[in-house]
Amino acid sequence: MSDALDSNLANCLNETHRVGVDHSIKSIETQLQSWAAIYMNFSDIESHHWIQEIQGVNKSDISNLLEKSKYFVIEALQETFDFINAEISHGVLIPRVKNYLDSRIIDTRVKFLDFVDFVETFRFCKEEINCLNNILTDPTIDVNWISNWLLENSTIMYKKQLQNFLETEFPRRV
């Protein structure tokens, strides 16, 4: 899931070059909104996922750091949306504005990758595909929407593994 989230942010960054040519700023904004929804599901599950204790560090300290890392990503994303709303009202990206938008997306991506590194360090199960089962078994989650988004935004190598996992674990729900 983290690979798909990272890949999608990279794709948003690449598409800023196409705004005004064959894409609008709304398409990037929509991609970022979908990314935010997936990220919130991912980060909520990871935040509540069992965190292993490290010698000399208690779980509440790790949980507090995890929450801070999670909100750094949310703040960076909010700053990106604020910038889009304030500076790009007509869908035109002059070079200065495009460069700043790119820097906001890069900042969000870096903070997201920091969050993922933090999660992977302290997560009890080390295989992310196994952790995906926790997300998709939550009855409040729209499995079809999340599964489709993940399949559309995953790297080719991860896409095959994800497809096999979904067909095996959730044959009726996807």
Secondary-structure map:
Layout: H1 2-15, H2 25-48, H3 59-87, H4 95-122, H5 128-136, H6 143-153, H7 156-169
Give a structural overview.
By secondary structure, the protein is mostly helical. It has one domain: Up-down Bundle (Four Helix Bundle (Hemerythrin (Met), subunit A)). The protein contains seven helices and no strands. It has helices at 2-15, 25-48, 59-87, 95-122, 128-136, 143-153, 156-169. The longest helix has 29 residues, at 59-87. The protein is globular, with a radius of gyration of 17 Å. 24% of the residues are buried. The mean pLDDT is 79.
Radius of gyration (Å): 17 Å
CATH class: Mainly Alpha
Number of strands: 0
Helix content: over 70%
Give the count of structural domains.
1
Major sheet: none
Count helical runs.
7
Name of the CATH architecture: Up-down Bundle
Provide a concise account of the structure shown:
With 174 residues, this protein is mostly helical. It has helices spanning 2-15, 25-48, 59-87, 95-122, 128-136, 143-153, 156-169.
